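Review box. Two proteins, two foldings.
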Amino acid sequence: MKKISAFMCVSLLLLGACDKKETTEPKKQTEKQQESRTAKQTEKQQESHALKQKDVFAATRTALTAKTKMNIFLPTKIPLSNEKKVLSAYTEGQDKGYTVTFFESNSPLPVDSAALSDSNQAKQIAKLSVKKYETKEEAGKSLCSTFKLNPDYEKDVPSKDDPSAIDLGNGIKGFTEGAAGTMYLNFVKDHWAIFVKSPSTNKDDNISVAKSIVNQLEKEPLPTPNSYAVIEVDNRLKQNRVYWQNGDTLYGIETSGSIQDALTIAAHFESTSK
């Protein structure tokens, strides 16, 4: 009798284990299927997002063609605050220059729509400025003057043995200086002069921002400029500027959000090399 009872207990335990295994395996399969569906949905959303932005860039190019005599170069990607937002743009042009102000909104707005000036309908996220000069020397002087840039900035890089140099990772060294309540952290990467500014009271912020820039440029490198090029983060004014020179023309991207957004736009920009 005891043997029969023991046998029944073992059988029940085995059946319970089998039931548990059977219910666990379908659960895992369901989770994997759900993850796969989510990944596919995200991929489709990104593709749709890219296609919509492509249409905006095409409309922007068409609008600029009627306003400027210049060859038109544009970004191919603009980061938005979330996937539900849509992109639009407002264009201005002259014979030797053009600007494009990019906006995001909850619903599609045509390029150059009057509604873009309504802050309740659209939010400015970035601005592109392009200007052609008479000579490449004039273009270079203008850029250096705007950013108070030493034309020989690549020679200002601190040596690896300099005890005052700040290690920013990936072999990049920076140096700091201060004036009138502002701290500057300056460094050079891939021929780009990079400046991070903040109030002296928040000077430690400069290092974390500089390191984030170095990390992003490793993942998403910018085109190597054939002349002067500047990245500036001004934490006092909450302003980011990415400017570069190609021949007699200056290209500039400005954002008031994350510097990462400005760098992404610059990294996804049609080639301006001459």
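Next protein.
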Amino acid sequence: MTVIRSPLFSPAVLLLGIAAMFTFDGNGIAWFWADQPQGAFILLAASTGLWVLVLRSVRKAHTAKD
């Protein structure tokens, strides 16, 4: 099995994780971006774009080997 590494994988995971962050306080669990959902949307859109590029590069590498 060949492992194909993309330099965009780490930023894609990081942006997705930041968009889905939660905070823990005395009131319980709250979504980190509750006051600014547009910030989370921007991070999610950027992460989606990076994931598309990651999957394209993996597919391109697989077709090049065949």
